[in-house]
Amino acid sequence: MPLYKTITVNKETSVAIWKVEETEEHLWKGVELTDHCQNRFNGMKSDLHRKAFLSIRHLLALYNYVDADLEYDDNGKPHLKDGNFISITHSHNFTAIIISESEEVGIDIEMQRDKILRIAHKFTPFEEYRTLANTAAIIRKLTIVWGAKESLYKIYGHRGVSFLHHINVQDFIFNAGRTTAQIIFNGQSSDYGIKFLEFEDFTCVYAIKNKN
Ligand SMILES: CC(C)(COP(=O)(O)OP(=O)(O)OC[C@H]1O[C@@H](n2cnc3c(N)ncnc32)[C@H](O)[C@@H]1OP(=O)(O)O)[C@@H](O)C(=O)NCCC(=O)NCCS
């Protein structure tokens, strides 16, 4: 069972990461999907996507949840029926969830890729990155910032929020493994704590909304 990592963020919030190495048949063991999820599953063309989807159900099981405990809203955002907060991500062979009893949470895993250099100007003021030592460091930093903004988007979820104009991620050093972020949209602001970790050329970022 390739549970890759678990992180106790605080008393009420946990992260779990899965590295998908099993066959689809193996991943079906112990998993039962709701009609909604079975329909979605049937429409998935890539076996990596199907396996990622099933692996998430194994991560849920770690916290004693089954697929039927999950409900998707019209935007595709997952909710736990018991009122706890959840966020889900998959990227290639890594998948992860964050669950919290008390705080709104978002999570994102991204593969570190050169491609991010080409789209960076769309989501962050790129000139701020020029002081970094080398291209590899710039890619790492951009991937963290992108992951932070995706995580915030998963919490906030308002159409019209611009990654470039409405979400600000405070500068950070890699070793800190954390930063903060703010969304300012429609005259209102909200604040978030961000944590990140890197493994096997992937970056995992998660965000927790500050209580006001
Ligand atoms: C919805 C979105 C956040 C998903 O992120 P992604 O990196 O494509 O994919 P991930 O694997 O990390 O996340 C997928 C999971 O996010 C969750 N999700 C989907 N829509 C969501 C939403 N509106 N809110 C919160 N979570 C959502 C789901 O759990 C989904 O997995 P599942 O359906 O298998 O359970 C992303 O597609 C998106 O729309 N981002 C905003 C785009 C944007 O504004 N970009 C600006 C670029 S400058």
List strands and helices in order, with pairings.
Blueprint: E1 3-10, E2 13-19, H1 24-28, H2 35-42, H3 47-62, E3 70-72, E4 78-80, E5 85-91, E6 94-100, E7 105-111, H4 115-123, H5 135-156, E8 167-169, E9 178-185, E10 188-199, E11 202-209
Antiparallel strand pairs: 1-2, 2-6, 3-4, 5-6, 7-11, 8-9, 9-10, 10-11
Helix pairs in contact: 4-5
The chain binds coenzyme A (COA).
Essential attributes:
212 residues, alpha+beta, Ribosomal Protein L22, Chain A, 2 domains, five-stranded antiparallel sheet, four-stranded antiparallel sheet, 5 helices, 11 strands, globular, binds coenzyme A, 4-PPantetheinyl_Trfase_dom_sf, 4-PPantetheinyl_Trfase_dom
How would you summarize what this structure contains?
The chain is an alpha+beta fold and 212 residues long. The chain has helices at 24-28, 35-42, 47-62, 115-123, 135-156; strands spanning 3-10, 13-19, 70-72, 78-80, 85-91, 94-100, 105-111, 167-169, 178-185, 188-199, 202-209.
Please, how many helices? 5
Structural class: alpha+beta
Name of the CATH homologous superfamily of the largest domain: 4'-phosphopantetheinyl transferase domain
CATH architecture of the largest domain: Alpha-Beta Complex
CATH topology-level name of the largest domain: Ribosomal Protein L22, Chain A
Please report the total strand number as a whole number: 11
> Gyration radius, to the nearest Å?
17 Å
Please give the alpha-carbon distance between the first and last residues. 39 Å
* Global morphology: globular
Strand adjacency order, main sheet: 7-11-10-9-8
Low-confidence segments, ≥5 residues, pLDDT <50? none
